[in-house]
Every structure is written in C-alpha cells, then in structure tokens.
C-alpha cells in the first residue's frame, strides 16, 4: 500500500477559498509542496482556507507547517461541495521564535473531499502557512 500526500497541487489539491490574499504570498503556495513558499494572512482573526481534493481521500495523518499560529481548528467535509463541515481537531500550537511550527495530527482514518483550516488566534498580527501534508490512501465513494 502506497501512502501519498494529497495536499499537493500535483495530486489535484487546490486551495478553493482563503480569507485573505497577498499577491506575493498567494494561497496556492500552501499546496506547492515547498517549505520556502507560503500563504500569509493580512490581519484580523479568525482566518481560514479550504483545500479541495476533487475526490474522496482517506487521511491517516496531517502535518501542518506554519509560523505564529496559536490555535488551529481542522474540519472535514465529504460533500460534493464545500459544505457540512465536521470538526476533526482543535489544538493550541507551541511557538519558538524564529522556527517554523511543524504540528502533526494523527487520528483514526478520516475521509474527506475538503479540509477547512481555521486559524482562531495567533501570536502576532500575521501568520504564515507553508506546507500541508495529508498522508493516506485513495478510496472510492
């Protein structure tokens, strides 16, 4: 069985909504697979973004690489449209000055066609999201 990262544009993942956008740091950077590029928020919280997988995927582990995020909530949807989200997890993240936060979320396998990430609060006025890794296997609905 081969595990894959479904949060990559090369796997068909797409950021279909982001509550803020800066042309230098667009939301698409979240799914390009590189830590050097990122999406940045432009002010107030909460901020959120939604990743679409274009098919139902089964995820066993999520890794989020970000900076200055204090509280993060992750929700999933298996609908054909980005509606009917259910909360998977909410966690307060640890912050170390000058270091990217790499937070792993392990749970029993979840199925999702969409994941919504809500940044509820931050350690500063702006945060950045660098990379998402959603490990899992494809299952047909």
From TrEMBL:
GO MF annotation terms: metal ion binding
GO BP term, pick one: intraciliary transport
Gene3D superfamilies: Galactose-binding domain-like
Coiled-coil regions listed: none
Domain of life: Eukaryota
One Pfam family named in its UniProt record: F5_F8_type_C
Subunit structure: Component of the IFT complex B, at least composed of IFT20, IFT22, IFT25, IFT27, IFT46, IFT52, TRAF3IP1/IFT54, IFT57, IFT74, IFT80, IFT81, and IFT88. Interacts with IFT27. Interacts with IFT88.
Protein name as it appears in the record: Intraflagellar transport protein 25 homolog
Organism of origin: Phrynocephalus forsythii
Lineage: Eukaryota, Metazoa, Chordata, Craniata, Vertebrata
């Amino acid at each position: 069985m081969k595990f894959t990262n479904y949060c990559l544009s090369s796997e068909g993942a797409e950021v279909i909504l982001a509550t803020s956008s800066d042309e230098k740091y667009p939301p698409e950077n979240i799914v390009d697979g590189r830590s050097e590029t990122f999406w940045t928020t432009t002010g107030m919280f909460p901020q959120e973004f939604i990743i679409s997988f274009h098919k139902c995927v089964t995820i066993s582990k999520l890794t989020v690489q970000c900076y200055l995020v204090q509280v993060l909530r992750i929700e999933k949807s298996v609908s054909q449209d980005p509606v009917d989200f259910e909360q998977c997890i909410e966690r307060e993240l640890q912050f170390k000055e000058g270091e990217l936060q790499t937070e792993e979320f392990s749970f029993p396998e979840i199925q999702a066609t969409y994941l919504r990430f809500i940044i509820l609060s931050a350690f500063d006025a702006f945060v950045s999201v660098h990379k998402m890794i959603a490990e899992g296997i494809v299952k047909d609905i």
